[in-house]
Structures are given as structure tokens and as C-alpha cells.
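Predict the assembly for these two chains.
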Amino acid sequence: MSVRHGLLALLSRGPRYGYQLRAEFEASTATTWPLNIGQVYTTLSRLERDGLVSRDDQGGQDEQGRVRYAITAEGRDELDRWFAKPVSRADRPRNELVIKLAMAVTTPGVDVAAVIRAQRSATMRSLQELTRALRTLDASTEAAQRLVVDSMIFHAEAEQRWLDHCEAVLARPSEENP
Amino acid sequence: MTETRPPDRLPAPDGEPVVRMTGVVRVHGEGTGAVHALRRVSLDVAAGELVAVMGPSGSGKSTLLNLAGGLDRPTEGSVVLEGRELRDLSPKQLAELRRRSAGYVFQDLNLIPSLTVAENVALPRELDGVRTARARAEATAVLEEVGLADLGDRFPDDLSGGQRQRAAIARALVGRRRLLLADEPTGALDTRGGDEIIQVLRQRADAGAAVLLVTHEPRYAAWADRVVFLKDGRVVDSSAAGMETAR
């Protein structure tokens, strides 16, 4: 997940302090990905090192000595490239559940059906909670937040379908177990 | 979409579930050809509750729904609908209880094409022996509750798929029926139509109906207070939302 590009996108709207970036990042992603302030400053210093952001001279420092950052021309180019380029599936983190099930199937003594059932209940519970969250969003909610919750719902739904699929495949009678 | 007028809450009888199934077994056929559709299933659906049933085809979902509404009788076990043990009822009493207490919504073929929407919705009440004017008034009221107040004079073919299903829900609920049984009601609809239907089912449950929904769509099941997973005629899992506990 690209905190780096997320911060560049926020800075493209105008110079900001680190604490502002953190608050806006969390707001636009419906607090799905909490950021700690350390992460924000680490990322900003790397962006600065790479010439994608710079310290904003006009804003200078506030009374607490905090620095305001602005996006550079190189930063804007990088951001344009990010928006233009599709995210590759290989860039995404490994899925622990997939690894767990693959291991469960091949490890003797593991009750795969029980692993699937436990996961399915847990995934359905989070799907129920997400649906409830979506129901409580009112019409004035930012589209960005709504879409983030939608995305999590679609992911949970896909996981649920995949678990059903796993169960069906494993339930097929094999030669030794007709 | 639909207006959100707070609907009148139907009376809840002392916390008693609208339908209570205990140790229900349903076997089709006999001897070596016998098929165990349900094996000792217990399930309550209370007023105000939306319960979703999921499971692969052949897992017993539709059998469960038919038994809950008295369309079928269990081989063993007990089904109590609105406080009446179905086993003790004559076929005639059962038919009457079923008509008064339970309403069905299927995937398709819910409405009679040659009747208007309001006539379709009023029909079960006329069959109950209620006079036409009163049946029509009840139909109008329930059509309003599902957001179809203006479409009562149309014919089913003039409506969208989602509107037709909402009319079917209205017909299932007319005359204070408290148990709504829905078998894949979103199955023939696109995403938007399906979303409309699940919202109406949720609203009806929030207004005091007991809703039992069979679906293979996790996204719609997630609107339920409880999701029950069936497999080979058994409840293998159940997941409750929020603080409520599964029985």
C-alpha cells in the first residue's frame, strides 16, 4: 500500500504539515489504514531525499517548530505516473489465508474443513459489520469513504466465495474416499 | 430510493419467536432411496430479526424454508409457528395458519400478470375472506411501506424487476403476516435491483417482521442479524452480527 503516493496526492492540493497529512489520509480512507505520525515523517523525509517534496519556505515553521511540505514538479510527474499505471497484482502483499489453507491441505493431521468453517464465520462476521457500517453512512458522507468501505465489502465477499469454492473442491469424492 | 417513514412496529408476543424449529428432520422417500434433506436442525426466528440461510445447493435451504412456513411437514421434530405446533394441526388448520402467518417471495413468477399490482397484493386478503374495499386499503398501506405507493394501478409487466419483487414482498406481508420467507429473492435481479430488495427486507425486519432469507450471495446475507450455514442438511455454522448471540 503506497503511503508515499497517498501523501503526494494530498500535497498536490497544496502545502501541508505532517499532522494534517495524517488526518487527511485517514479521513479519505475511512480510517481503514491508520497511519502513525512517525510513518508520515519517515515517508516525507524519503520523498524529500528523492526530490519529490520540499520544505515549504513561505509557510516556514509553525510555533511548535513543525515544517510544512510542498510537492515539487518531479513529485507531480511521479504522481501522474502513479495514477496512470495500473496496480500489478504481484505488487500486493501475500495473502496469509491462502498460504494457511494451502498448508492446511498438505499438512497431515489438520482438519481443513474446520479451518474453512472457522474462517467463513469470521469473514461473514466482518462482512456483516462492514455492511452495518455502510448502512450508517448518511448521504453526506464523502464518496471516497463510501468507496473504501465498498471495496472492503467486495474483498470480504470474494473471500467468502473462495472459501465456499475450497469447501466444494475438497468435498468432491476422491478415489480412496468415494 | 424508498421513503423512510418509520413504520408501525407490529406487536411482539412476549419475546416468543415467530417460528421455532427444534430437532427438525426431513426425509424424502424411504428405504435405500431415502434422502435426508434436513438432519436435526433447530432454528428460531424472532420478530424484528432477519436471518439468512446459506449453503451449497442440495444442503437443505429450501426444505428449511418450506418447513418454517408450513408448506411441508417434518419427518421428526417440532415446528411451532406463531405459538401453534404444526404437527397438531389438521391439513385445513395448517393451510389457514399458513395463509394468515407466513408470506413467500420467490426468485421469480411472484405476481399474476393480468392483475394490477394492488390487486395482486390484495389477493391473499380477499382469499382470507376480507371484503374487497378493506383488502384494497390494506394493499395500499403495505405498498406504501415498500415504496410503491404510486404504482398500485400498474401491471406487473410495467415494473422493473426490483419493483416487482418489492410488490411480491408487499403481497407476502399484507394483512399483518409476520413471517416473511424469501427464497433467493434477489436471484433474477441486477445489483441495483438486488440492493433495493435487501434494503426492503431489512426495513421490514426492523419494523417487526421475522424474515428468513435463503441466499447464495454473501453480500446480501451480510445484511442479516444472523447467518446460518447449512451443509448436508445440518447447521454447520452460524454467525451473529454485533452483540447478539446465535442460539
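The interface with chain B takes residues 117, 120-122, 124-125, 127-132, 135, 153, 156-157, 160-161, 164, 167-168 of chain A (CB under 8 Å). The radius of gyration of chain A is 22 Å.
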